[in-house]
């Protein structure tokens, strides 16, 4: 197994690592991260690294600390101790697209306005053809002028995915982005995300072993109290893998067993 995601990687090895693989997109380096809420230690001295251009799926039981970890990496929450930095040595905030568990669409903006919000906030010209392309790919081309309240939960999630992809950031952090989608739409949007994020550094939280095995170069499982990362897990072949790929089916079973064992 090529362990490109390394829990507790040696600092000297980190210093000699390729800084700009895969067209220059930086990876994510997490060092000795500790998070406490009062007497509760969610995780302690968590260290791992995701190489530039890698798509990593993070799994673990509810409440183990996945979303908290993602928010800290995104710079949206503070850790009690430890550091998060790009593998190029530069900070990560400002170079990420983040999609949280809630779609966070602004209710008074249309779908198109929500998708292009980042550009408008940055006072950049809106790339309308790109936004239209994305909305078409997520099946919302006829709903560009709709307000979020007029959409179903799955449609809102697709609009949020389009907004995340619109940003073209080198690092993409997603917290259960496909959870509200039906099985067919989910497979379609997974393929779209894999295609458009092919060279990006992606950390995806999911509860779905099939999704993790289809999309991830590597999979990580967070478990325990305080939470620890198990050995990273690699599915053979390149993502996106077909749902009936034998490697996906075998890995899915293995992963499910790991998750059950980790929850005991
Ligand atoms: N702001 C907060 N204040 C106090 N405790 C918090 C806060 N945010 C998270 N927690 C606690 O930290 C732990 C980890 O929460 P987190 O949301 O990161 O888990 P998770 O693995 O993402 O769960 P899920 O899969 O259900 O989304 C939980 O016990 C939660 O109650």
Automatic annotation (TrEMBL):
Gene3D superfamilies: P-loop containing nucleotide triphosphate hydrolases. Residues 1-27 are annotated as: Disordered. SMART domains: AAA (SM00382). Keywords: ATP-binding, Nucleotide-binding, Transport. Residues 28-249 form the ABC transporter domain. The keyword Magnesium does not apply. InterPro entries: AAA+_ATPase, ABC_transporter-like_ATP-bd, ABC_transporter-like_CS, ABC_transporter_ATP-bind, P-loop_NTPase. Pfam families: ABC_tran (PF00005). One of its GO terms (molecular function) is ATP binding. It comes from the Bacteria. PANTHER family: ALIPHATIC SULFONATES IMPORT ATP-BINDING PROTEIN SSUB 2, TAURINE IMPORT ATP-BINDING PROTEIN-RELATED. Belongs to the ABC transporter superfamily. This is Putative hydroxymethylpyrimidine transport system ATP-binding protein. It comes from Faunimonas pinastri. The lineage of its organism: Bacteria, Pseudomonadati, Pseudomonadota, Alphaproteobacteria, Hyphomicrobiales.
